[in-house]
């Protein structure tokens, strides 16, 4: 009789435990958190194939996930498509700058990073570009779907004509080399002086393309940045407001303690 009573108590205990919510017996793992799509600009190699996510950029995004508690479903897309999907409220976009049109469509995080926009040219004589006004009447190459800030938006197709290029960096440099555009705009964040940017192009960026047509070619950089810009997270107006505020907290904290700045310096 006593044995049967113990069995009954054990069965009742198991039944009660089974009815308890999962949180009462264990902590819900992070992997069960809902994911939010994060749209990123794709980069293409010289054959037009999509390159994998840059490791330094991935480290930045992992930092944001850890510090904010948000899980990202990272998606590399053509930049125009990434913007359209963000406008439709399907996720958050990263690496986007402000423009008058975008301010009507998105709410932006505080700046993640500030960047200098340099004018790059090829061939002699070397131009002495000092400011936006030196671009007057020129054909200026930019990445497809890209903006370089509010001053750029006011000047494009007014002071200069804009041509939008593919996501292949090597193809953009070859277009400039073949004189199909006068100038190419290129953001470089950490370097301060034109000679540093030229050395970066010559010694690091151009060799990384592994393209025989570009090997040994010299590109010139404007004496000063022609524009200044900031890049952000952004989401469609009225969407992901709580998540965007969490990202703002991470940006402020990571900037204050220097942890985010160190990660950004590796990528930018």
Low-pLDDT stretches are 1-29
Note the gap between the termini.
Answer: 76 Å
Strand elements, count: 10
Computed over alpha carbons, the radius of gyration is 25 Å
Mean pLDDT: 86
The proportion of strand residues reads 15-25%
Shape: globular
The topology string of helices and strands comes to HHEHEHEHEEEHEHEHEEHH
The helix count comes to 10
As a percent range, the share of helical residues equals: 25-40%
Please give a handful of descriptors for the protein shown.
40% helix, 268 residues, ten-stranded mixed beta sheet, disordered N terminus, single chain, alpha/beta
Description:
With 268 residues, the protein is an alpha/beta fold. The chain has ten helices and ten strands. The protein has helices at residues 2-19, 22-25, 55-68, 79-87, 100-105, 150-155, 169-177, 194-208, 241-257, 259-267; strands at residues 35-41, 71-77, 92-96, 106-108, 113-122, 139-143, 161-165, 183-188, 219-221, 227-236. Strands 1, 2, 3, 4, 5, 6, 7, 8, 9 and 10 form a ten-stranded mixed sheet that branches. It is globular, with a radius of gyration of 25 Å. The model is unreliable at 1-29 (pLDDT under 50).
Structure in a nutshell:
With 268 residues, the protein is an alpha/beta fold.
Task: Write the SSE topology.
Layout: H1 2-19, H2 22-25, E1 35-41, H3 55-68, E2 71-77, H4 79-87, E3 92-96, H5 100-105, E4 106-108, E5 113-122, E6 139-143, H6 150-155, E7 161-165, H7 169-177, E8 183-188, H8 194-208, E9 219-221, E10 227-236, H9 241-257, H10 259-267
Parallel strand pairs: 1-2, 1-3, 6-7, 6-8
Antiparallel strand pairs: 3-10, 4-10, 5-8, 5-9, 5-10
């Amino acid at each position: 009789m006593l044995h049967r009573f113990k069995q009954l108590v054990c069965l009742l205990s198991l039944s009660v435990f089974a009815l308890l919510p999962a949180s009462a017996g264990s902590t819900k793992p992070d992997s069960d958190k809902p994911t939010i799509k994060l749209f990123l600009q794709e980069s293409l190699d010289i054959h037009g194939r999509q390159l994998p996510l840059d490791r330094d950029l991935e480290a930045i995004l992992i930092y944001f996930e850890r510090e904010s508690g948000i899980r990202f479903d990272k998606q590399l897309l053509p930049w125009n498509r990434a913007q359209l999907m963000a406008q439709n409220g399907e996720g958050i976009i990263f690496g986007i700058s402000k423009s008058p049109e975008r301010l009507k469509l998105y709410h932006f995080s505080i700046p993640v990073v500030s960047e200098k926009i340099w004018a790059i040219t090829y061939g002699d004589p070397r131009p002495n570009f000092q400011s936006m006004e030196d671009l007057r009447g020129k054909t200026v190459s930019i990445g497809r779907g890209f903006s370089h800030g509010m001053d750029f938006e006011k000047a494009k197709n007014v002071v200069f004509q804009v041509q939008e290029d593919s996501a292949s960096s090597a193809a953009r440099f070859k277009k400039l080399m073949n004189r199909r555009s006068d100038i190419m705009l290129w953001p470089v964040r950490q370097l301060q002086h034109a000679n540093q940017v030229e050395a970066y192009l010559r010694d690091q960026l151009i060799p990384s393309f592994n393209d025989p047509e570009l090997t040994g070619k010299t590109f010139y950089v404007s004496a000063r940045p022609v524009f200044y810009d900031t890049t952000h997270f952004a989401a469609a107006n009225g969407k992901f407001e709580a998540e965007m505020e969490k990202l703002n907290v991470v940006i402020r904290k990571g900037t204050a303690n220097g942890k985010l700045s160190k990660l950004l310096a590796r990528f930018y």
